[in-house]
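User: Teach me something about this protein's shape.
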Amino acid sequence: MLQISVIIPVFNEEESLPELHDWIRKVMEEYSFSYEIIFINDGSKDNSWQSIQQMSAENPAVKGISFTRNYGKSAALDMGFSKALGEVVITMDADLQDSPDEIPELYRMITAENFDVVSGWKKKRKDPISKTIPSKFFNWVTRVISGIKLHDFNCGLKAYKNKVVKNIHIYGEMHRYIPLIAKWNGFNQIGEKVVDHKARKYGVTKFGWERFINGFLDLISVSFVNRYKRKPMHFFGSLGTISFLTGFVITVWLIFEKIRGISKGLVVRDITDQPLFFLALVALIVGAQLFLTGFLAEIMASNNNKKADYNIDEELNFKD
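Assistant: First, the predicted structure itself:
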């Protein structure tokens, strides 16, 4: 087994790729690591794929996968995870803001300190305040909800044991929450390392303000999915039972009140003339529907274990 797999999602980063490759290669040779570099070309419109092809021809350790269109960073990482052969899998961005000089220490923390995941912490960020302030708030909320004490969930520079990446599946924009997904899959040894964050040298950022909105929605989604994907009946069934019992209790109380009023010779309204009756009826119907939803979701969960498929245009240096 190789010692290190480096996975790099690429989207319109042709200017930085040769420099990044040379930097990684220098570090690997200096420490005598056996390694592979897997570039995932995520539907780039520039010459990124041509650059990857050229590097692959010059260095057999360079491997590449090119998607037919842009699927997003999570899809690129998920594909890279499925292909990685290294004992330690390291992810980093292609824009030269993540330093390959951090690789040896990340490798040591995984192999010597037995961490399952080590997440980078860009303590001193070289980003404008329009990105740093929302990011601090975003990370605080994620810490509170997830219970994982990391300062920078969105740092692209992370290291994993190979068995971790082989047992998780990410999609959408869930690359931010890989530590949380790993934790829900039983990998609880999660560490953090302060890493050097470089100023962007080429091009512009590929992410805008919408990533923070999407990020919060994905946090809710990943929390729900990882808690209940194996047992959806526990969620829907519980809500359905509460709703149904509430409607049932209200109905019984209305009937009891009517019978008691009649027995005392009082004039009482018909049950169907009371607003509470309709509230009880809605609660009964919603409860039954939620319970049925949980039952159907349970059947789907037991039958749906397939990973997502991505359309691949070309692959480089992968052996069957």
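Now, about its shape. The chain has two domains: 4-229, 232-303. The first helix runs from residue 17 to 30. If you'd like, I can walk through any region in more detail.
User: That's plenty for now, thanks!
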